[in-house]
Design brief:
Elements: H1 2-24, H2 33-36, E1 41-47, H3 51-67, E2 71-77, H4 83-92, E3 99-102, H5 104-112, H6 119-125, E4 139-143, E5 146-151, E6 157-162, H7 163-168, H8 184-194, E7 196-197, E8 213-215, H9 224-233, H10 251-265, H11 273-276, H12 282-288, E9 293-297, H13 300-307, E10 311-314, E11 324-326, E12 330-333, H14 340-351, H15 357-361, H16 371-374, H17 376-384, H18 394-405, E13 406-408, H19 417-432, H20 438-452
Parallel strand pairs: 1-2, 1-3, 11-13
Antiparallel strand pairs: 3-12, 4-5, 5-12, 6-9, 6-10, 7-8
Length: about 450
C-alpha cells in the first residue's frame, strides 16, 4: 500500500509540473488575467473622427481587449474641431491619457515641453518591429534620435468624384495615373460643366446665377494640407530649402493659392469657407450631390463606402508636378502614463493591419508598414476585400501616388505650428472672399510670421 501511495504521489507531482510548464508557455493573450495579472490595467485613449470612424475604432479596441484581457481601454472621443482645446484642458488638469491622437501643431508644442516618450526607445526593445518596417516619412521628431510621435496611419489626397454626375455632364473622369493628371485648365473646364444653378444652368451659361448655386463642380478645404497639394505641385513650400526662413510668400505658393481662390471668386465653381459652413461635410456633400468632385483625403472612403456612393478617385490636377501630400495626425505616448509598455502594445495593434483589418479594408486608414504596399497577398487583404471603400482608381490615385509622388506634410517639419497656422488661416480669409490677392496677403502674413516664428 505504501508503494502504491508513493507512485500516486509521484504521478501527481509530475502532472503538476507538466501543467506549470504548459502554463508558462501559453501566449499572453490566452492567459487567465485573474492569475497572471491580478492588477487589472486600464489605458486611457483619446482620439477624433466621424461617427463611422468612431464605430470602427471601438470595434478594434474591443478586439484588442479580447486578445489582452487584463488590459481595458477607456476610449475618449473628441470632435476634430474641439480636440486641441480638450487635450490642453486634460493636460492642464493632470489628466493626460496614456495613448492619444495628436494634431501636429499641438504635438509639436507639447513635444517642446517634453510631454511624450521617445518611440524610438520602444522600437529598439521590440523584437517584432523595427524602424525599417515603416514608411520613411511617418516619424515626428524633435531630434534625429527622438521620435515624439508616429503617424497614426498613412494618408494622402485625391480627387473624389461622383461617376453618375460626370456622366450626366458629359465630362470625362480624371485619370488615376500621375502621368495623365489633369492640367489646371482641365479642372476648371470640368468644374464649370458640373456646377449648376437653381435653374439647371452650368457655369458656362451666360445666364448662370452665381448667387443660387445648387451643385458645385468642386469643393476643397482651406487648412494647410489641402492647400499644400497645389503649393507643392507648383514648386512652393512653407519654409526655405534650409528650413530656416518662412517662405509661403514665394511666387510659386502665391500662384497656387490664387488658382484655388479663383475657383471660388472668378469661376464660381467652388464654395468659399463662409459658404461651406452652410453645407455638410465634403463626403456628405458628394453623397448628396451638392458637389460633383471634392479634394479630400482617403479617410472619406470609409463614409462613402458605407453609404454605397457610386464614386471613384483620380489623381489631383497638377500645376508643375503631380503630387499628393502624405500626412496623418500623430499617435503619442504621454510621459505621464503609468503603463507605457501596454500603451505601446495598443499602438502596435492599431498599426498592424492584420490585427485591425477593418480600419484599413473599410477605407479609413492606409498602412504605415511597407510590406502592406508591396506584398500582393497583403494588398489584396485590405484593398480588394472591400471594393465599395476602394474603387478602381484607388490603387493608382492614392496607394501608388503616395509611394511614388508623395510629399510629406509641413506637419512633419514646420516649427511653431500652433502659432503659425492661425496666422495663415486668418490672413488668407480675404483671399477666399475675393477681397485681396494671394500675393499681397501672403506678404502681410510673412511679415508677422517671419519676425515672431522664424525657424530655428
Amino acid at each position: 500500500m505504501r508503494k502504491k501511495g508513493l507512485i500516486i504521489f509521484i504521478a501527481v507531482i509530475m502532472v503538476a509540473m507538466v501543467f506549470l510548464i504548459w502554463r508558462a508557455n501559453i501566449p499572453p493573450s490566452h492567459r487567465d488575467p485573474q492569475i497572471e495579472y491580478p492588477n487589472h490595467i486600464t489605458l486611457k485613449f483619446t482620439y477624433w473622427g466621424s461617427i463611422e470612424e468612431k464605430n470602427v475604432i471601438e470595434q478594434t479596441l474591443a478586439e484588442f481587449s479580447r486578445a489582452y484581457p487584463w488590459i481595458s481601454i477607456e476610449p475618449i472621443h473628441f470632435p476634430n474641431s474641439d480636440y486641441n482645446t480638450k487635450m490642453m484642458a486634460m493636460s492642464a488638469s493632470n489628466e493626460e491619457p496614456d495613448l492619444a491622437y495628436m494634431t501636429t501643431e499641438l504635438g509639436e508644442a507639447f513635444s517642446r515641453e517634453n510631454k511624450f516618450l521617445n518611440l524610438f526607445d520602444f522600437m529598439a526593445k521590440d523584437d517584432e518591429l523595427n524602424k525599417d518596417d515603416f514608411l520613411d516619412y511617418i516619424w515626428y521628431k524633435s531630434a534625429e534620435d527622438y521620435a515624439w510621435g508616429v503617424s497614426t496611419a498613412a494618408e494622402c489626397f485625391g480627387l473624389f468624384y461622383r461617376k453618375d454626375l460626370l456622366k450626366q455632364a458629359d465630362v470625362d473622369p480624371p485619370s488615376p495615373k500621375a502621368e495623365q493628371a489633369w492640367s489646371w485648365g482641365q479642372l476648371v473646364d470640368a468644374a464649370k460643366k458640373l456646377t449648376l444653378d437653381s435653374q439647371g444652368r452650368n457655369a458656362y451659361d451666360p445666364a448662370f446665377d452665381k448667387n443660387h448655386i445648387v451643385r458645385y463642380g468642386i469643393m476643397f478645404e482651406t487648412w494647410s494640407d489641402p492647400l499644400n497639394n497645389f503649393i507643392f505641385s507648383n514648386g512652393g513650400d512653407w519654409v526655405s530649402s534650409n528650413r530656416k526662413q518662412f517662405a509661403l510668400q514665394s511666387p510659386e505658393a502665391a500662384e497656387a493659392i490664387q488658382h484655388l481662390a479663383d475657383l471660388i471668386n472668378v469661376h464660381h465653381v467652388a464654395p468659399s469657407p463662409y459658404e461651406s459652413k452652410s453645407l455638410p461635410s465634403m463626403s456628405m456633400s458628394l453623397q448628396a450631390g451638392l458637389a460633383a468632385m471634392v479634394v479630400d483625403g482617403q479617410w472619406i472612403n470609409l463614409d462613402l463606402g458605407k453609404a454605397g456612393v457610386d464614386f471613384d478617385i483620380g489623381v489631383l490636377p497638377k500645376l508643375k508636378n503631380s503630387v499628393t501630400v502624405g500626412l496623418s495626425g500623430a499617435t503619442v505616448i504621454f510621459r505621464s502614463s503609468e503603463h507605457p509598455e501596454e500603451a505601446w502594445l495598443l499602438y502596435k495593434w492599431l498599426s498592424d493591419p492584420s490585427k485591425s483589418l477593418s480600419l484599413y479594408s473599410d477605407g479609413l486608414w492606409m498602412p504605415v508598414l511597407k510590406e502592406w504596399y508591396t506584398d500582393p497577398v497583403l494588398v489584396d487583404a485590405w484593398v480588394n476585400s472591400n471594393p465599395a471603400a476602394h474603387p478602381p482608381g484607388f490603387r493608382d490615385a492614392m496607394m501608388k501616388q503616395l509611394l511614388e509622388n508623395g510629399r510629406p506634410s509641413v506637419g512633419y517639419y514646420l516649427q511653431n505650428q500652433l502659432e503659425i497656422f492661425p496666422e495663415v488661416t486668418e490672413g488668407l480669409l480675404p483671399v477666399w472672399q475675393g477681397e485681396k490677392k494671394a500675393s499681397d496677403a501672403l506678404q502681410e502674413i510673412a511679415k508677422k510670421v517671419s519676425v515672431l516664428y522664424s525657424q530655428k
